[in-house]
Amino acid sequence: MKRKVLPLVLAGTMATTMFAGCGATNDKKTSGNDEITLTVMGPAEDQAKDNGEWLQTQCKNFAKEHKEWKIKFKYQKSSESDAKQVVTKDVSAAPDVYMFANDQLVDLVKAGGIAKLGGDTEKYVKESNDENIANSVKYKGHYYGIPYTSNAFFMYYDKRVFSEDDVKSLDKMLEKGKVSFPLTNGWYLSAMYTANGCTFYGKDGATEKDKIDLSSEKAAPVTKYLMGLVKNPNFVVVGDDGDSITPLGTGAVNAIFDGNWNYDKVVEALGGEKNVGTAVLPTIKIDGKDQQMKGFLGSKAIGVNPKCKNQEVAVALAKYLGGEKAQQAHFDTRKQAPVNKNLTSKKEILDNAAVSALVKASKESTIVQPLFGMQGYWDAAQPFGKALVNNEVTESNYKDKTEEFNKQVNGSKIS
């Protein structure tokens, strides 16, 4: 499922609990004589028989490894992108352990719906992941989830049209074929501006005082570049329906920007894996210089409800579901790209074109997506992109339009 950007600011009260995994000294220990019931929530796809019932299988494996606990599992279905709505509606009735998209973290924290992690669990998050992935579940100095896959976009292309050398440069690609891009979607649009040094709350995505920097010196040259792109007949803007795969299948376009969630559809559209190429984001030529596009990087992670009665067991399960063995199984059953550093270098995983591209993109062509203060950007990005597409941004006003855009994106209240 294509990632959808959700608002990051909701009113709520802060209520968090510190967990330190199985070795937490202040957790109430669970008696092995008591039957424990845990409700676990994840996407329907991870519970489907056609996909090997990944979630149920991993929970059963966890129980086998922890015979000291008698565990009964209940399962609830919800996509990672909808987890926030389910949990914050009534935290006391929400699942004990759940899968969520990291851009919901601030709202989950404010609603008291997600537990801080500590001890061995926190250590695992920091040591088993690249720094950007670990930071994707970090808020105000604390870690709240165990990442199990990254969330970023890369490029798919038709190998019959473009070579591996062609796809290093967007401008070179546009000389040979048609490329589509979701210019009116802020999640993608940001990659154009970060190419020329624009930042979102500093280089780490977490420095509040730095704000969003789309200042004219850095951003106006990008706006001017985009003005030229939209007039290029080989540059195709993805429509409001977000469908770039159908045109890829008909040959109306030859390359798209998307994620590993649509790999199978891309393979079908291009007539088989032999025709499918994947690559990190290309460079774009700004003021005569090739600049590397950098898209937002997020993650999907396992969270624990602080209202869970069996805290010790819930945290241990969350760590297991986000652990190396579970990530390997997730790749085997659904081709979910792992983030554990022991897996991201394995040949069998890198042999998968989409997973390999995602792993490389996460390291080479991404920045951490901020977890706060983004509402102003999301609100302003779509109309700004549409103004570009409609040629409302012109040679005479593009600097003013860019400066106005910069003011709008910094209109978010940071909390």
Distance between the termini: 30 Å
Specify the helix fraction band. 25-40%
| Tertiary shape | globular
Largest sheet: 6 strands, mixed
How large, in whole angstroms, is the Cα Rg? 22 Å
Structural class: alpha/beta
Let me know the average pLDDT.
Answer: 91
Number of helices: 16
**Which stretches of 5+ consecutive residues score pLDDT under 50?**
1-28
Secondary-structure arrangement, i.e. CATH architecture of the largest domain: 3-Layer(aba) Sandwich
Number of strands: 19
Classified by CATH, the class of the largest domain is Alpha Beta
CATH fold-level label of the largest domain? D-Maltodextrin-Binding Protein, domain 2
Domains, number: 2
| Percent range for β-strand residues | 15-25%
Fourth-tier CATH superfamily name of the largest domain: Periplasmic binding protein-like II
Describe it.
It holds the Pfam family SBP_bac_8. Residues 1-20 form the signal peptide. The protein has 415 residues and is α/β, with parallel strands linked by helices. The chain has 2 domains: 18-151 and 298-368, D-Maltodextrin-Binding Protein, domain 2 (3-Layer(aba) Sandwich); 154-296 and 370-409, D-Maltodextrin-Binding Protein, domain 2 (3-Layer(aba) Sandwich). The chain contains 16 helices and 19 strands. Strands 2, 3, 4, 8, 18 and 19 form a 6-stranded mixed beta sheet that branches. A 3-stranded antiparallel beta sheet has the order 14-9-15, with helices on one face. A hairpin with a 2-residue loop joins strand 16 (283-286) and strand 17 (289-292). Helix 8 (216-231) packs across helix 16 (398-409). The longest helix is centred in the middle third of the chain and has 16 residues, at 216-231. The protein is globular and about 75 Å long. Mean pLDDT is 91; it is low at 1-28.
